[in-house]
Amino acid sequence: MKIVAFEIEAWERDAFGELSDDHTLILLETKLTAANAKDYADADVISTFIFSNLDQNVLEQFDDLKLIATRSTGFDHIAVDYCQEKGITICNVPSYGDSTVAEHVFGLLLAISHNIVEAADRTRRGDFSLTGLRGFDLQGKTLGVIGTGSIGQCVIKIANGFGMKVIGYDVQPDEKLAKALDFEYTEMDDLLAQSDVLTLHVPANRHTYHLISDDEFAKMKEGVVLINTARGSVVHIQALARALADGKVAAAGLDVLPDEPTIREEYELLHSFFREKHDLETLLAGHILLRLRNVIITPHNAFYTQEAIGRITETTIMNIRAFAAGEAINVVN
Ligand code: NAI
């Protein structure tokens, strides 16, 4: 098989290199885009991370693509319906960093609750004053977890350690799990009304698109803290900007933003407005949030630890090998 892997960093080369024993292998630093897809039209297998956008106009440039091995859990960057129609298998890495992402959730939350970013900025400038740095305890606060799957469950375990009261909402509640992890399921509206801190762990799909918007913010407690490490599209970003402006949301910790690959580079704002028709208001809201002191944004690095990336590489290679052997694993479509 001809395997083309995009977005490959130096540390991945050796591990992926072993695939060249049995296959033709091309490892590229670049993202897969509509502009370069044609150059690799004869690939049987492609592997990307999430910053390549595998939409239909990219995928239809491949002549006989058989497998997409995404090096991520989420597969919302892939045109799943098109793959279904064309018989292209999609494999993901279902569980490489549940605790990794859960730890990042608390990294963001503690940074907010103890004003760590502002405090560290000040001491670097030689300013040791406490003015404006008063935080709040996590102990005794109610944490609302939306999506009690693999990552949500790790978050709940950590929250228990902090002495938080946990409530959960999931389209597929698991009462056994709730008992084992000592939390209660509630209806979405109750969860919104009761939570001091809300954290999102649902996949991005058409059902979760703008799951948190003006109506949901209206139902939340005054001064709620929102943490989003799921996907940018789950939160209506303009609604979040409004909720932050009127004080409904006291602070937000975001590892993900809508139109993330675009927002990563300032110059792309104009480029995308004129050439790719991204929603300018969404991009602007993202840029506004980047500058607010009560919003902490990380560049989608919740998963990015030594241990987790090792597991991603290992599973992706296993996915490709299993597919080549006719026994595909971790298939999502
Ligand atoms: P999972 O599949 O184990 O859990 C997702 C849970 O959400 C399931 O329990 C499901 O029933 C529930 N759910 C689905 N639709 C829902 C809805 N409309 N309302 C309420 N609950 C709903 O997924 P996992 O591994 O916990 O990951 C969750 C998401 O986290 C991924 O889909 C991915 O987008 C994101 N992620 C982010 C990373 C980062 O670096 N920031 C890294 C890894 C994953």
Short description:
The chain is built from 14 helices and twelve strands. It is α/β, with parallel strands linked by helices and 333 residues long.
- The average pLDDT value, as a whole number, equals 94
**Low-confidence residue ranges:** none
Number of helices: 14
- Our estimate of the beta-strand percent is 5-15%
Query: Structural class of the secondary elements?
Result: alpha/beta
List the helices and strands and how they pair.
Elements: E1 2-5, H1 10-17, E2 24-27, E3 45-47, H2 56-59, E4 67-69, H3 80-86, E5 89-91, H4 98-113, H5 116-124, E6 142-146, H6 150-161, E7 165-169, H7 175-181, E8 184-185, H8 188-194, E9 197-200, H9 214-219, E10 224-228, H10 237-245, E11 249-254, H11 260-263, H12 268-275, H13 280-291, E12 295-297, H14 306-324
Parallel strand pairs: 1-2, 1-3, 3-4, 4-5, 6-7, 6-9, 7-8, 9-10, 10-11, 11-12
Helix pairs in contact: 4-6
1,4-dihydronicotinamide adenine dinucleotide binds next to helix 6.
